[in-house]
Amino acid sequence: MKVGLKIGLAAVVLSAVAALVFWFAAPIRSTTTVAMPGEAPLPEDAVIDRLVVHKSKRNMSAYSQGRLLKTYPISLGKQPVGHKQFEGDGKTPEGKYRINERNPNSGYHKNLGVSYPNEADKAYAAAQGKSPGGLIKNPRHQKNGWGSIGKKHLQRDWTDGCIAVTDEEIDELYRSVKHNAEIEILP
What is the dihedral of CA 28, 46, 48, 136, to 10 degrees? Predict the structure, then answer.
């Protein structure tokens, strides 16, 4: 192997290592913008009928019959400001949707599906000659095998538009969120 090629490969490897070190060493984004009702797990018999996501605060609140049960810190799509309009825009949708599917064998541990796109989302994208995208999962979490990073996923907005929580949190939500529960995603 030529010396120049070896040096180039070494530079690429060092850059990748430096990026990983920066990712894991950077401070976790503050979650103190809202009072979290404790880190205690939800009761086993909890039934969540409504989720409210505050994108700007990076949190998602779980409700049962109008009563706040718990607030979770979250990460969002790579381009978190604004409503998702097209496939690949990296945005998380805004508006009222439903939790309309469950996948216990996801490539991301488990997930709950959000009913995006709705008819208005589809019409807008079609008028622009684009796909609205879809497969928005709420919440998404670390890819299988990456669950050990835990809350470090909060350091950056990293999904393609999904709402990310930890594996432990999705286990709790998967168990407690009822089918067709409302999810309101606010700016």
Answer: 50
